[in-house]
Amino acid sequence: MTETAPRLVIDGGERTFTADLTVPDPVPTSALQRVEDIIKSARMFRYSGTDAEESETALLEKEFAEYLGVKYALAVSSCSSAIFIGLLAAGIERGEKVLMPAFTFTAVPSSIVHAGAVPLLVECDDNYVVNLDDLEQKIAANPDVRFFLLSHMRGHVADMGRIVEICKANNILLIEDAAHALGSTWKDQPAGTFADIGCFSFQSTKMINAGEGGMLTTNDEDIYAKAVIMSGAYEKQWTKHFARPLRILDYLNKYPAYNVRMNEVTAAIARPQINIIDRKGEKFRANYFRLANILKRSKHIDVPDRIDHENPVPNSIQFNLRGLRGDHIRTILDALKQEGIGIKVFGMSEDNARCFWNWRYLDVEDEDLPITEKMLKTACDLRLPVFLETDDIDTMGALIVRVIDRIQNTGLATPA
Ligand SMILES: Cc1ncc(COP(=O)(O)O)c(C=O)c1O
Predict the structure, then answer these.
(1) Which segments of the chain have a pLDDT < 50?
(2) How far is the CA of 10 from the centre of ligand 1 (A)?
(3) Of ligand 1's atoms, which has the minimum distance to the CA of residue 201?
């Protein structure tokens, strides 16, 4: 169908969208000299120097903690490592259940499994955030549950006031997976700082692109002290952190060293990016809302409103297709691909790692999550890298709306 269809006409001229939406965001060139110096010195290990001042990783921790306004930040090899170490530092026990939203990336339940625990999935609504009624029901049905690992999937931050309230009322320790939400706020408070533990990712598609890497944040001295030891600060290496509460000595050699440290090169790539989080965030936000407003013109596209008080920094957009059958959605996705816009519907590919039914290392057959399942079947996912300009957004938006409406108007798709 798309082969014989005329090219779409935008602004009076033929125009196809040619940008590669998979390109990661650039790293400030100032990182280059630092990386070169570190490699020349061969001191890539974070503890090669004599003190924190000499460590790029320690400086990154200090500046990251300052940016978020938290007491402690511990650099680790990934956000998954931060979740793993965080759960252990918070006292998780083998076989214990951990509540988590059913809409997230496979790394999240995997980190729970890594810590010897068992994910307990909570429904997510078609605005992509956790369903608080289901959260409360699952807490009531599992009165012993002590942990909630909240994932701000695709940067959608839920009502944090209610979530903190629910956790407090039920004696539940909250951990935030803010891998996608660095730079977002809810009521002006940064995502990742509502919980007892915040976890962040510096993998290439995240706000800070260091290839890989992560950060654990907390205001809790005990959790920080245990996490430092478990990240791999053996013997006196803990003295090479800026934050070094003596409490660390209580845990030295009493907890395993899992060696999930960050290395100096990663830290040098990440560090200059702290200064650009807010500027990037503004651009992400402007692009997101501009595109959302264009997409809302189609009656087949539902871009759910964001949660009140959320100030997001989305580097992707999610929207739900309405009144279209699965085969029609496939036709639309193919047509858009031809136009250079690769949109994925989470629930339409066999192996999508963001669909809970594909986490087969869990007992997913037993999961009954009809709300999340329905959402995932029609929820579209489109990356919006930072290089996109207003013109690109307008072109993409017009293309998406026209392709959907054209297919609808040709009678190829009839409302289901
Ligand atoms: C929502 C979410 N949480 C956590 C992670 C884990 O991050 P990392 O790759 O740094 O372990 C990812 C990875 O992409 C993710 O998408």
Answers:
(1) 1-13, 413-416
(2) 37
(3) 10
Question: pTM higher than 0.90, yes or no?
Answer: yes
Topology (CATH level 3) of domain 9-26+277-409: Aspartate Aminotransferase, domain 1 (3.90.1150)
Three-state SS at 200: strand
Atom of ligand 1 nearest to the CA of 214: 10
Domain ranges of the chain: 9-26+277-409, 30-275
Residues with CB under 6 A from ligand 1: 78-80, 104-105, 107-108, 151, 153, 177, 179-180, 201, 203, 214
- Largest Cα separation within the chain, whole Å, is 72
Q: Which residues contact 234 (CB under 8 A, 6 or more apart)?
A: 257
Of the residues 83, 85, 103, 105, which should be mutated to test ligand 1's pocket, given the most ligand atoms within 8 Å of the CB?
Answer: 105
Q: In sequence order, what are the beta bridge partners of 198?
A: 176, 217
Contact (Cβ atoms closer than 8 angstroms) between residue 190 and residue 174: no
Residue with tokens 């706020």: 185
Q: Which of 74, 78, 79 to mutate to test the pocket of ligand 1 (most atoms within 8 A of CB)?
A: 79
169-196 residue pLDDT tens = 999 999 999 999 999 999 999 999 999 9
**Residue spans of beta strands (DSSP E) within 210-345:** 214-218, 301-302, 310-311, 316-321, 344-345
Whose tokens are 């306004």? That residue is 69
DSSP 86-137: HHHHTT--TT-EEEEESSS-THHHHHHHHTT-EEEEE-B-TTSSB-HHHHHH
Of residues 281, 241, 199, 258, the one with CA closest to residue 60:
241
Domain at 30-275: CATH architecture: 3-Layer(aba) Sandwich (3.40)
